[in-house]
Amino acid sequence: MAKYIFQRILAAILTLFVILTIAFCVVRLMPGSVFDDPDLSDSVKKVLEERAHLDKPIFVQYLYFLKGVVTENDWGTSVKLSPGMPAFQVIVQKIPVTMALNFISLLIAVPFGALFGILAAMKNKTKVDTAISVGVILGISIPSFVFATCLQYFLAYKFGWFPILYQPTATTAVKVSSMVLPIFALALSPIATITRYLRGELIEVLNSDFMVLAKTKGLNQFQATVRHALRNAAMPLVSIILHMFAGVVGGSLVIERMFSIPGVGGLMIKSINALDHSLTVAVLIFYAMISVATALIVDLTYGVVDPRVRMGGKKDE
Amino acid sequence: MKKAISLILAMILALGMLAGCGDQGSTQPSQGSDQPSQGSEAQQPEQQQPEFEKIFRYADTSSTQNCNPFNNNTSIVDYLQAKLYNYYGVENAATGTTKTVIRPELAAKEPYTKDGDDYTWYIELRQDLKWANGDPINADDFIYSWQEALNPNVKYSATSSLAENQIAIENALDYYKQEPGSNAVKWEDVGLKKIDDYTLMVKCTQRYTAENVMRHFQMRYTSLVYKPIYEQCFNADKTENTYATSADTIMSCGPFELSSWTVGAERVFKKNPNYVYADEIKLDGMHVRVVSDDATALELFKAGEIDYLSLGTSSYEVYAEDPRTISGPGTTVRGIEFNFTHPTKKYLDDVRFRQALYFATDRDTIAKMTNNIAAPYFLPTVYSMSSDGTMLRDMDYAKSYLPANNGFDKEKAKALFDEIYNEYGKIEVRLVYNEAVSALRLTSEYLQSSWEELFGKDRFSVQVIAMNNSEAVKQMRYAWQNEGGTDSWELCWGAWDLSAAVVSANRKFERYTSYNSNRFTAYHNDFIDEAYKQSITEEYRLDEDKLVKITLDMEKSLIENVDQLPVFQAQAFYIFSDRCVRPTKTRLNFVGFQFERFDLTHE
Fold first, then answer.
1. What integer pLDDT is reported at residue B38 of this predicted model?
2. Which of A151, A309, B43, B374 is the most exposed place for a label (fewest CB within 10 A)?
3. Mutate to test the interface with A, among B161, B296, B488 (most CBs of A within 10 A)
């Protein structure tokens, strides 16, 4: 098991290094310069570019960047969006609100998705199943921003039940109520996704032989479903839910923009548009770290759950 | 399976703790944020309690993360930092006209010279100046701030303008540009000195007018920073500074102070009773929400949650007929560049072809279509060079050389095009526009159809191409940077001006010289080359009439040669709630609507 974990971690580090290299080169090769300002004279521009090593070949710039990362944990400094601030600090500042919002929406999505999935599977081919399936299709096909617009227009603007925008400095009650709509908008798609997967898996499991056996042993439908069917059907869900965690810190560009939430969503686009290259690279690496870490956790979880995965078919380990 | 579930639960717990302790990270309200500090309260003059708290609320698209005056060039800095001199919008009640004038703010009076030394200016400070916390402001604060603005180890990208902009200060640029750690140019050699606690001296490299000096020291980069906080915000090797990145790392001396600031979400300002013109500030505070989404801002305005709305494309449709909607001309004239160095299409360098397009452009229709202003000119309507505030476009001479009908003359255009067609045959061009600006897409498509219709599709064809702006600019510049030119473009939209051109309109024409390193295309107008050089000499700079004349002559030459094809001047639309009382009816140069001087009639 230790060897398996070591191999996975090593692969993750190598993957990150490759992403970091590609990200740095792609971003630095983009047209335009952050100092491309008509108010700056040529001599000043030259001095500023020298200070940021932009006058050097890209390989040398990359070495400076790597040296900073390895020796000082310096991922560069934002030049345009948050001038003077370390790039990673800009991201870290924005993570808490994004995580709170997305994590809560996921926390709501899991039980509701499971509930609707179980209900649809147990009531397979009934009106309840049809109604839930229609809801699932709508939930998956309607983009979150359309749903968010409707929520904002009707519940916030028309009825005035919730604030239109996120209220960061209001009283706790107002602050919580201002988070309801974005959380709801963000939860819709995950609820539909979980419901769809669980329904499909459960329907298959409910018709298997061991379920018949469980019922003949005297368990009722509910007991057999929860104790046996759900356990087996939940396996594929583990990877789905874990991958949803990647989105948790990734943020939601549109929802954050609509509700004026100061999260990480949109930071990438803003930094690219502002030619704030250090920040763009830091954001890219941040997202890459989240994705690689999630994949690593999924791998390790499978390894723990299913010994065949970590043993790779070898009997002597 | 149990292990897997345990692992997931552990992760959920860990993330939950993270989420729980978060949400405060970006919010850094100062202590007692909604109450004035004790020091401030003590000095607040007695006044009648308003019946309600006058808080002006608006939505802003700018999610600025830094209010350091050396790093931020937005109006947010103006709310927080007073300057030596500042612009001020005034309205003539009798005529209903408005203009922007400059007046002393932290300075006691206009700058002056003495003993016949026209290179050295003296600026006297008011003696009762205070920071928002009550600490006194004197000449030491200015010298410290300016030294830090030009600090060669930090090298703020914008502060080189403190060294050279409206005036050039002795040794200041060399001090800023020198290698970090170098002592080749000492601070003592820079022409910014303290004479006494309330007098500053500025030594320039050339002769200037008092107006020049005042315009220089109204720039944001010349603002003050509060030393005790600024020093704490340096990194270990003193090469970066995080001053004014949160409400508790900034000190105000302007009309307002920040009582709380959630970066990217909201800024809450409260009145600074120690501001030098505090008696002119009728608001108790301002609440600014950062809203990037047009539709959300519109809903906020409709719901009465904000008092001001800058109308975007969608919201303009809603309020186009509303009598409260007002327009404000921008400083940008959008025009089309020509690839003069195209290796095969030599007609691009033929003035007859460019004039044909100039006269074939129906600017009135375009202006109506895009809600902008028809512009057969280069100098926008908001440019002024006169000490009395007269706009250049209002001058008789500026009107005299503009063609009738905003330059749209079908017959003239056809006649010129016929000559070109006879010489070069069928004309095929690509017109590149910035994909992010919808008005450019609309205009490009309109020009494509109207030009093809006027000249005949069999004789003239236009292909419209959308492109990222950075890529388009890079492509344009490549044409003159690359020997032999490039055939990758023929026509391309371009708009890029020096900010200093708003008060020194002659500087706009620097970009049209054949020697400007930032030029978009290979301009080669000999008159512009020579006239621009003349316009920045003392002879012209110190003589307002001469400077205005040569500036307008440069515009006239550009129009005659169509070195660029001017099409429209950008315009924006705004709406205010009924409770707002504005100091001026219109939006003014430099000061905008002057939100800080608003009054509110009711809650």
1. 35
2. B43
3. B296
Give the integer Cα–Cα distance in Å for B472 and B467: 6
Q: Where are the domains of chain B?
A: 55-307+577-600, 329-571
Q: What is the pTM of this model?
A: 0.80
How far is residue B272's CA from residue B435's CA, in Å, rounded to a whole number?
43
Encode pLDDT of A217-261 as tens digits. Answer: 888 877 888 777 777 777 677 777 777 766 666 657 788 888 888
**Tokens 């309330």 -> residue:** B198
Flag if B240 and A297 touch (Cβ within 8 Å): no
Report whether A49 contacts A55 (CB < 8 A): yes
Whole-number Å distance between alpha carbons of B67 and B70: 8
| CATH 3.40.190.10 fits domain B55-307+577-600 | yes
Asked if residues B289 and B57 have their Cβ atoms less than 8 Å apart, the reply is yes
Whether residue B106 contacts residue B84, with contact meaning beta carbons closer than 8 Å, is answered with: yes
Under an 8 A CB cutoff, do B25 and A92 touch? Answer: yes
Q: Hey, what are A122's tokens?
A: 């147990």
Asked if B556 and B569 count as a contact pair (C-beta separation under 8 A), the reply is no
Per-residue model confidence (pLDDT) at position B124: 97
* End-to-end CA separation in angstroms for chain A: 8
Q: Work out the average pLDDT over B217-245.
A: 91
**Total Cβ atoms within 10 A of residue B78:** 24
ipTM: 0.75
Dist. CA A44–CA A41, nearest whole Å: 5
In the chain, the amino acid numbered B319 is Y
- Tokens representing A148? 């968010």
pLDDT band at B8; cut points 50, 70, 90:
very low
Q: Which residues pair with B85 in a beta bridge?
A: B104
Provide the CATH topology of domain A92-310: MetI-like fold (1.10.3720)
Whole-number Å distance between alpha carbons of A266 and B291: 13
Give the C-alpha distances (Å, rounded to integers) separating A221 from A112, A130, B448, B497: 20, 20, 70, 75
Cβ atoms of A87 and A77 within 8 Å: the answer is yes
For residue B574, the SS3 value is strand
| Cβ-contact B429, B491 below 8 angstroms | yes
- Longest Cα–Cα distance of chain A, Å, equals 87
Per-residue confidence (pLDDT) for residue B145, from 0 to 100: 97
User: Which pLDDT score, from 0 to 100, does residue A310 have?
Assistant: 58
Residue A90's pLDDT is: 87
User: Which residue, among A174, A151, A195, A185, has the nearest Cα to A253 in the 3D structure?
Assistant: A185
Is residue A236 less than 8 Å (CB to CB) from chain B? no
CA A136 to chain centre: 21
DSSP SS3 for A293: helix
**Extents of the domains making up chain A:** 92-310
Output the six-digit token pair for B63. 């999610």
Confidence of residue B48 (pLDDT cuts 50, 70, 90): low
Please give the structure tokens belonging to residue B15: 């993330």
Angstrom distances, CA of residue A115 to CA of A129, A230, B9, B43: 12, 11, 18, 63
Buried b (16+ CB within 10 A) or exposed e, A41-79: beebbebbeebbebeeeeeebbeebeeebeeeebbbbbb
Which residue among A35, A248, A257 sits closest to B157, beta carbon to beta carbon? A35
Is residue A260 within 8 angstroms of chain B, CB to CB? yes
Residue B425: Cβ-neighbour burial (10 angstroms; 0-12, 13-18, 19+): exposed
Please tell me the distance in Å from B276's CA to the nearest CA on chain A: 29
What CATH architecture is B329-571?
Answer: Roll (3.10)
Contact (Cβ atoms closer than 8 angstroms) between residue A81 and residue A90: yes
Which residues, other chains included, contact A171 with Cβ-Cβ below 8 Å and sequence gap of 6+?
none
**Residue B6 pLDDT:** 52
Determine the residue of chain B that is closest to A151 in CA distance.
B296
Give me the amino acid identity at B147: Q
